[in-house]
């Protein structure tokens, strides 16, 4: 009996492939070379430059102007010129006085510590009614705490220099207390019953401190006027500046020589 062989089917089954869509990427070079794109970039660049120029002119207006009214500016130069004409001489005089005090303090080996300045500042804050009132007072007077501390330091230096030259006794302090105790100690005075008075002995030291400050302030003007004769002062706010041969160099060597002598004496 013959075996029948089954024939393998040679027909291959067909597989279905998914449809793949291919997109052609735009050429960057073609986009850049496009005339419309070039025009767009040109307009954008010009707009950006225009904005920068506008900001620059705003900076000039604000940086070099004290005020701008509808685009019309008032220059800081005009502002400073007006201030100089009205207050220049007095301000220069004040700055000269302050510099002389510093020079005299250096000559007399006098200094004001940070603790002394802070203690005086704390007294001021208490006297005006606390921190909030103090900040409002600074704002109202247009000064900073740094400016105030500088003035306090100058007052302390002047007091240390001039106090040894003052002539007074306890009777002078007592009279000062009797006359101004309500001003020096307003809070304590307000708490008194009618007819009561503050105890002088209790407030003597503080009264003495205020009395000395007042006396120093009264004598400071004549003291500084006398020192004007000792220092070579060139006030360019009232006179034409003077020039001399090697004047600056001579001043530098003179200051170095004085500093060397001072260090030698301290040693």
Describe what this molecule looks like in 3D.
It catalyses: [protein]-peptidylproline (omega=180) = [protein]-peptidylproline (omega=0). By secondary structure, the protein is mostly helical. It folds into 2 domains: 31-76; 88-239, Triger factor/SurA peptide-binding fold, CATH 1.10.4030. 65% of the residues lie in helices and 3% in strands. The chain is built from 10 helices and 2 strands; from the N terminus they run ααββαααααααα. It has helices at residues 28-33, 35-63, 76-107, 114-127, 131-141, 145-162, 170-184, 186-190, 204-227, 247-266, and strands at 65-69, 72-75. Strands 1-2 form a two-stranded antiparallel sheet. A hairpin with a 2-residue loop joins β1 (65-69) and β2 (72-75). The relative contact order is 0.06. Residues 6-13 have low confidence and may be disordered.
Count of all domains: 2
Indicate the radius of gyration in whole angstroms: 41 Å
Main beta sheet strand tally, sense and closure: 2 strands, antiparallel
**What is the overall silhouette?**
extended
At the first level of CATH, what is the class of the largest domain? Answer: Mainly Alpha
Average of the residue pLDDT scores:
81
Percent of residues in beta strands? Answer: under 5%
Content-based structural category: mainly alpha
CATH architectural category of the largest domain:
Orthogonal Bundle
Number of helices: 10
């Amino acid at each position: 009996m013959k075996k029948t062989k089954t024939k393998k089917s040679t027909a291959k089954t067909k597989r279905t492939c998914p449809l793949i869509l291919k997109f052609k990427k735009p050429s960057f070079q073609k986009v850049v070379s496009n005339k419309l794109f070039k025009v767009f970039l040109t307009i954008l660049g010009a707009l950006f430059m225009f904005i920068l120029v506008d900001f620059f002119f705003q900076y000039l207006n604000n940086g070099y102007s004290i005020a701008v009214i509808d685009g019309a500016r008032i220059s800081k130069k005009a502002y400073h010129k007006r201030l100089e004409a009205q207050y220049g001489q007095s301000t220069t005089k004040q700055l000269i006085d302050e510099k002389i005090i510093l020079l005299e303090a250096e000559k007399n080996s006098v200094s004001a510590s940070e603790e002394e300045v802070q203690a005086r500042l704390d007294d001021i804050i208490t006297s005006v009614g606390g921190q909030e009132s103090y900040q409002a007072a600074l704002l109202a007077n247009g000064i900073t705490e740094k400016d105030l501390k500088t003035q306090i330091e100058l007052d302390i230096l002047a007091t240390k220099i001039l106090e040894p030259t003052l002539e007074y006794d306890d009777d002078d302090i007592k009279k000062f207390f009797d006359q101004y105790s309500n001003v020096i100690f307003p809070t304590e005075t307000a708490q008194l019953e009618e007819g009561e008075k503050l105890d002088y002995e209790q407030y003597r030291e503080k009264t003495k401190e205020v009395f000395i400050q007042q006396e120093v302030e009264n004598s400071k003007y004549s003291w500084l006027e006398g020192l004007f004769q000792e220092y070579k002062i060139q006030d360019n706010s009232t006179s034409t500046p003077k020039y001399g041969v090697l004047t600056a160099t001579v001043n530098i060597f003179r200051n170095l020589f004085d500093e060397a002598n001072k260090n030698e004496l301290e040693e």
